[in-house]
Design a protein that fits this description.
The protein has 461 residues and is an alpha+beta fold. It folds into two domains: 243 residues, Aminohydrolase, N-terminal nucleophile (Ntn) domain (Glutamine Phosphoribosylpyrophosphate, subunit 1, domain 1, 4-Layer Sandwich); 187 residues, 3-Layer(aba) Sandwich (Rossmann fold). It is built from 17 helices and 25 strands. A seven-stranded antiparallel beta sheet has the order 4-3-5-2-11-10-12. Strands 6-7-8-9-13-14 form a six-stranded antiparallel beta sheet. It has a four-stranded parallel beta sheet with strand order 18-21-22-24, sandwiched between helices. The two termini are 35 Å apart.
């Protein structure tokens, strides 16, 4: 069955979580909790692979399935996942279909052992690598760049003495944005692309080391954030401790700006920047640009709320909660009818009529992709009695697709690629529309180098 998402937002590909604990310390439940904390990064499938480093090679146990983390894993499944080392994954597909075959971890056996891999991002030269593999006689049919990467590591592993060396040899061939965790029976290896496009952090819980897409996931299991994995760094954890290879480090970084605008949890810290503070400062910048005097400022839950608070603080206009968000909307694996699709926003958001009735308001959201969702939200506000709705977006207009693992539609599907802000305001039914400017990113994140290709067509790789 095909999954149809109703939200009109760019979507992250997935989230990764890995843990290496001392022998005798089970990690499956912590991985489960960590994946739950990363659920916002992918809701199509979830998976966990664990290994006992004191056992024989090949003692890996794997469980993955379609759905949310809580739907894939119950008590019975977690009880079978015994091991002190493990990797987990939540997925939203941008390459490969939404099927169980494409769920991660990718697990493979080969002549020298086994390998389990979880991956966030997109490897741009995956097809070229696959062709090289086929020419070497590695006949296989892959549907994802994650599988191509796994085969590349295995290909190198049979020719060298250690899995971390194989990972390094494979990594230098990769082009794109990625955060990867590789588990062999007794080692865990983390890789972050040389630009740092995709986030990856390192933490500690007691004697255990943790890797995750976001710091919030480490904290959710009672761990402490140590640092970000550096762009281009390869970190290896074994029973002897932790080592780092920085051979690929030192280039120009380009962190995904949309992590700070929308993707990441509000309570996460990425590359030294607190996500909530970045969004708050974006709202402050919008207030200086927009300069309209209204009765209240409201944000579209959830990522628009911090920006709305920042706007209110800078403008002096009162901040208000104007929506109730239903956090328990299930996902549908059945194609919706036109009427169901039309009512999707109504099922997710409800307007608080007493807050907006008779009011002139500023509405803050993080982005406009096609404009369909914002149009429905404004219709709901006007039906509830809002007199004016001025929309402010805490990002510049989307003009270009993303090639690094974020699902941004082609340019022809991006409303800003063919319409001015004034034209879009008419299309969505707003009294005005204001976007954040690219120069305001410095206000958001300081001197942190960013990938802003979806706005300015300047791709780092």
């Amino acid at each position: 069955m095909e999954w149809y998402e109703t939200t009109d937002k760019p979507r992250e590909e997935c989230g990764v979580f890995g843990m290496y604990a001392p022998v005798g310390t089970p990690v499956a439940r912590d991985i489960y909790c960590g994946l739950t904390a990363l659920q916002h990064r992918g809701q199509e499938s979830a998976g966990i692979a664990v290994s006992d480093t004191s056992g024989e090679k090949g003692n890996r146990v794997v469980r993955k399935g379609m759905g949310l983390v809580s739907e894939v894993f119950g008590e019975a499944e977690l009880a079978k996942l015994t091991g002190n080392i493990g990797v987990g994954h939540v997925r939203y597909s941008t390459t490969g279909g939404s099927t169980l075959e494409n769920a991660q971890p990718i697990c493979m056996n080969y002549s020298k052992g086994s390998l389990s891999l979880v991956h966030n991002g997109n490897i741009r030269n995956a097809e070229a690598l696959k062709e090289e593999q086929m020419n070497r006689g590695q006949a296989h049919y892959t549907t994802s760049d994650s599988e191509v990467l796994a085969y590349e590591i295995i290909s190198e592993r049979v020719r060298c003495g250690a899995v971390e060396e194989a990972v390094k040899r494979a990594a230098v061939k990769l082009r794109g944005g990625y955060a990867v965790l590789v588990m062999s029976p007794r080692k865990m290896i983390a890789i972050r692309d040389p630009f740092g496009i995709k986030p990856l952090v390192l933490g500690r819980k007691g004697e255990a080391y943790i890797f995750a897409s976001e710091s919030a996931a480490i904290e959710s299991v009672g761990g402490t954030l140590l640092r970000d994995v550096r762009p281009g760094e390869i970190v290896t954890v074994t029973e002897d401790g932790i080592t780092s290879d920085e051979t690929m480090c030192g280039g120009q970084a380009a962190h995904c700006v949309f992590e700070y605008i929308y993707f990441a949890r509000t309570d996460s810290v990425m590359d030294g920047v607190e996500v909530r503070e970045a969004r708050f400062r974006a709202g402050q910048a919008l207030a200086r640009i927009c300069n309209v005097q209204e009765d209240l400022v409201a944000g579209v839950p959830d990522s628009g709320l911090a920006a709305a608070e920042g706007y209110a603080a800078a403008s002096g206009i009162p901040f208000a909660i104007a929506f109730h968000k239903n956090s328990y909307i299930g996902r549908s694996f059945i194609k919706p009818t036109d009427e169901e699709r039309k009512n999707a926003v109504h099922r997710k958001l409800a307007v608080l009529r007493s807050v907006v009735k008779g009011k002139r308001m500023v509405l803050i959201d993080d982005s406009i992709v096609r404009g369909t969702t914002m149009r429905q939200i404004i219709e709901m506000l006007r039906e509830a009695g809002a007199v004016e709705v001025h929309v402010c977006i805490s990002s510049p207009p989307f003009l270009h697709p993303c090639y690094y693992g974020t699902d941004v539609p082609s340019a022809r599907q991006l409303i800003a690629s063919e319409h001015s802000a004034a034209e879009i305001a008419v299309e969505i039914g707003a009294d005005s529309l204001t976007y954040l400017r690219e120069e305001d990113f410095r206000t958001m994140v300081g001197d942190l180098p960013l990938c802003t290709a979806c706005f300015d067509n300047r791709y780092p790789v």
